[in-house]
């Protein structure tokens, strides 16, 4: 993971410049925290990684909308669902109880799974077909995990504030997705 | 689950007696909350049940030591571990990151799994071989889930106060264990 440092120069100044007196840039703080998360997640399963994610986000400065993450976890491909009508089943997470199964194409999670791409929603109330598992959730990001071009799971994170996620989350959660695709045992 | 009501007369008075003015008995509050949890858990998988458990305990009155639960979840039998040397693997939970694998006989979890019985620890510092995943944990209860007399998983709950669990927890978590033994799909 040494290459992460080259991609993440801002995090160096946060920890190495003793004379830096200005307030912490929330975006830089997020990069540093998500960078550290990637290091730790390399040896963790989905259960531990859901805890890492939740506590990473909620440890962000209060000035960051992402601080208000209220749900973080995974859905995995339901191996009993028909190939022609696949669905996701609730996996490890941190937060309040959630929908236990979600069909591909349904809501934000199902859309990301069906389209095999990250879906970032600024305001869930404006997303057609949004599934309201927790009414406190106001924004959401869902990143599919692919193995051999097949969706095996999704990363799902909800935030209690509108606009909780940006391109930094897309970048780091995309890298987490790639990592988990390789480090976890997925049913073939 | 109708028979639960017969076993739980104290919960009736909490909700049905409008003239009850004395403070809520923590033990009665716990019975009512765990009774409701059993109803909901009947249709939930382990991921949702870990959330039910955590939020049930932390919703108890502050006067109950169990209010200070800081970790609630499951370990499941690691199907790749040798039959002669079985181990548990971290499953869904709520709380800080935890030990990812635990050998049978090791710590509170491994002892409960090896002995196939509930282990309730008043003060983890006095339990020989206790595994300190989270240093805030001061007491713990572990209840094995058996399927055909074989341990398939354990329920593990930690509390940040000494003496967080009593015979009420043993009773209701034992019933949860029986429920999950039947309601979940366990690898044979």
From TrEMBL, chains A, B:
GO terms for molecular function: L-methionine-(R)-S-oxide reductase activity. Pfam families: GAF_2. One of its GO terms (cellular component) is cytosol. Residues 1-23 are annotated as: Disordered. SUPFAM superfamilies: GAF domain-like. Residues 73-181 form the GAF domain. InterPro entries: FRMsr_CS, GAF, GAF-like_dom_sf, Phosphatase_reg/MetRdx. Transmembrane segments: none annotated. Belongs to the free Met sulfoxide reductase family. This is GAF domain-containing protein.
């Amino acid at each position: 993971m040494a290459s992460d440092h080259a991609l993440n120069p801002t995090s160096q100044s946060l920890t190495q410049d003793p004379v830096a007196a200005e307030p912490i840039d929330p975006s830089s703080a997020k990069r540093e925290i998500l960078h550290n998360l990637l290091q730790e997640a390399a040896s963790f399963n989905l259960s531990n990684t859901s805890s890492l994610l939740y506590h990473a986000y909620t440890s962000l400065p209060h000035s960051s909308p992402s601080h208000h993450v209220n749900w973080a976890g995974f859905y995995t491909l339901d191996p009993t669902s028909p190939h022609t009508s696949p669905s996701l089943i609730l996996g490890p997470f941190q937060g309040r109880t959630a929908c236990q199964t979600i069909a591909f194409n349904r809501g934000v999670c199902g859309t990301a799974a069906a389209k095999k791409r990250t879906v970032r929603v600024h305001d869930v109330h404006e997303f057609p077909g949004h599934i309201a598992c927790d009414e406190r959730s106001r924004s959401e990001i869902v990143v599919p995990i692919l193995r051999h071009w097949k969706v095996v799971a999704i990363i799902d994170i909800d935030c209690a504030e509108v606009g909780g996620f940006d391109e930094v989350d897309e970048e780091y959660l995309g890298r987490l997705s790639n990592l988990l695709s390789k480090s976890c045992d997925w049913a073939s």
